[in-house]
Amino acid sequence: MLLFTVLTLAGLGVALSQRLGQASAEQAEFATAREEAAAAAGRAPEVEVVRPTTAAFAPLVVLQGTLEPVQAADLGFEVAGRVSRVDVALGEHVRAGQALVSLDRASLGAQSAQSEAAIAVAQANVDMLRDRVTLLEGLVRSGASPERELTTARQQLAVAEAQLGQAMASRRQLATQSADHVLRAPFDGVVTRVPNGVGAVAGPGTTLVRVEDLSSLRLRTTVSQSELEALEVGATASIEGHEGVSGTIRSAVRSLDPQTRRAPVEVLVPNAGTHLVANALVRARVVVGTPRPALRLPATTRRPNGEILVIDAEGRVVTRSVSAQSDVDGSWLVTDGLAPEDRVVLRPATAREGQIVVPVESQTAPADPPRAGL
């Protein structure tokens, strides 16, 4: 029974494959038959065409890259310890200096008490030796004590004062270590990474929190030499897909990378109230010339090599080379090689060069959306 089922499924697979192949062959035969039938009937096959519409073309440089936060910081402790407190949540807005995460300070408390005791002992020793030096100075003046004892007392006082200074330095070091047990925000921003909770042991240098300043975003990318020559610092770059959102070219390095032959460019985009997403891939358009008239065609009219098919006055399909650039909606703006009265084949795969056809006006008219940056 199992063998029968397997053989049946295999047979169905082969039959399906053959059926698909037959369908493709039937479509090709149908197209050929249609042409032959049209020729036999004394008429040419029908081909759907469109006429270009007028549009405005502005020379553009398209910049593509990632919108990075204007500044970001990965934060971790300089000392090891156990996380005892998490004061912020993921996505929370924080202010500069605000506490984010704290480590357990139990060991610091014991060390602090020990340090204070050491300071008290050192201070008492200094006070005692100062009194002794004062007493010996009076005895030496009266001749009741030798000069040697006063010298020894002064040396002992100097040692005691040094020990007091050392104890106070240890207290300052503990205060610094205590501050190192608290992570604070280095600038205003948004928390994009935070520990899940308390109890974990953090090692020195381990990233626990990430803060990103999203008030402005940076688009960093590279351009070719010709594009670099057309760009200027201060020019406006419009972000595609976000109407009314634009940035300013902040830097354009006038030096090409020896390997890639491209130059770095940076665009600063204000993000107050624009709802742009950091670290997203975007495209920006920079108008680099004066707008001039153009003709718009649907994207389907263009062949992969950039050519289009046009129907001449005799109904013959002619290949035409044009100068064009893609617009925001995917349509093509033709600036050279096309006339407003030309009839352009909507789908080049439905016709071939030299073929006599009957052009049929398509119901699909190329749209005329507003140009980015204008």
TrEMBL record:
Domain Multidrug resistance protein MdtA-like C-terminal permuted SH3: 300-346
Family: Belongs to the membrane fusion protein (MFP) (TC 8.A.1) family.
Organism: Sandaracinus amylolyticus
A Pfam family: BSH_CzcB
Gene Ontology CC annotation, any one: efflux pump complex
Protein name in UniProt: Efflux transporter, RND family, MFP subunit
GO molecular function, one term: efflux transmembrane transporter activity
PANTHER family named among the record's database cross-references: HLYD FAMILY OF SECRETION PROTEINS, MULTIDRUG RESISTANCE PROTEIN MDTA
NCBIfam families to which the protein is assigned, alphabetical: RND_mfp (TIGR01730)
InterPro entries referenced in this protein's UniProt entry, alphabetically: BSH_CzcB-like, MdtA-like_C, RND_pump_MFP
Domain CzcB-like barrel-sandwich hybrid: 78-211
